[in-house]
Every structure is written in C-alpha cells, then in structure tokens.
Amino acid sequence: MHIVAFVAQKGGSGKSTLASNVAVAGHLAGERVFICDLDPLQLLVKWSKARKAVDVPVEHIPPGKLAPALAALASKGVTLAVIDTPGADPAACEEAIRAADLCVIPARPNTLDIWASEATLAKVRSCGKDYAFLLNQCPPAQQGVRVERGAQALQQLGALLAPLVSTRVDYQDAIRLGLGVGELNPSGVAAREMRRLWASLRGRLEDKARSAAPELSLFPYRSFFDQAIKAHDFYASFLNALLPADRGTAERPPPEDAARRR
What we know:
alpha/beta; six-stranded parallel sheet; about 260 residues
C-alpha cells in the first residue's frame, strides 16, 4: 500500500481539495483508495457525505490512531491511502509525515505560503521522509515558458511535482458535489491536471532508485535555474528555497580535466 500525505503547517494551501482529487484520480486509475481525514473540521468526511458513494471511503482518524488504522487498511487490500492534515496542528502533521511514503507540500505562489512551507520542509527532513512540492492555485496567465522549463527541470530532479495546478472553477464545483474533477468534467483542463498529477505521484511512489539525495543532484544546475526562473519573483523565491547554498560545485572542473592541467 502506498501512503501519500498532504502536509502544510498553514491553512489555505488547498490540501483537502488536492487530497480528494488525487484520491479520485487514483480510484479512476484502478487503485483501491481510502482517505484518512486527520482534520478536526472533517472537511473530507463532509465531502464524502455529499458524494453519496462508498467507492472512495473517508474516515476521520485521530492522529494517535493513524498507524494502526493504516496497518488495518493494508491488510484489507487498500492500495492507496491519502492523508489530509489540518493546517494548525503540528502533532497531527508530524504523525502524517511519519506514516507517509511521500509527503506532498502544497504551496500557493505567494510569499506567505512559501515562508510557511519552510517549517513543513524542516519537519519532513527531520523525519527522513521523501517529499515533493506542489504549486497550487496558480494563475494560469503567469505560467510563462521560462517558469515552466524551470519547473519541469525541478520535477525531473524530484523536487517539484508536475503539473502546476491552476485556479479553476471545476475544483470548487467538484468539492461541493462530492466529486473529483475527473468525474465532474473528464475532458476539462482541471481533470487533465489531476491525471498528470496522479501520474507524477505514481511514478514517484514506484521509483526504486531514490536513494541518492536530491539536494546533491541540484548543485550543478544552480546557474541554469537562476536564469530559468527570473520570469516571476514568487516562483524564483520558491525554487531558490529548494536549492542549497552554492558551494561552488558548478565552478569546479571535472576531475579528468583538472588532471590534464597539472
């Protein structure tokens, strides 16, 4: 069983909307899905009641009971568990992080969300868990070519999930009706975004070669990203936050070239 947790120690980043839509996308792709709602507000429990179907079950689970609940789900043949977390409950967030195979950190492309994501990232790293960022609620007009190229490069290196999720009415309507956008409007742009996101998540979850630390791989690409993300300050701040301090790796000649110069 794969376990995906949407974690962000700030409300408003769209965790519940993303969690429900990813769960539905996984269900439509053939996964046996269960949503664990850790939020005391139980927003996805309410979404499930509006759904009036049991094909994507949702249950409110207190953080202290998450581990045994996940073990029980695995024993019953569930193949994908999606965890939704509250925005202002560090203990619940940490329980979800420790249980997850992959922690998805959603952030809107604004400075406050980016600052807030730093605390979440620190907690994920301290737990030694795999993670990826997801840019959510992006204004479509601001997704320029250079930003897209920088985002695609980061996605290939494992730091940023594709695609950038835009602000669309379909997401609001789907939540209200207890649906995913892939059910509400299968041919719509939002549905295509969620199919791409599920493909990214599935690929990440099934990747068996993630033992190399992503931050080590990022050093040689710093100058490329510095040029690629100048199109928008919000994205620049976000992407630069993912890159470690420049240690001069990109400036050093390869060992064989250095040997020739001696």
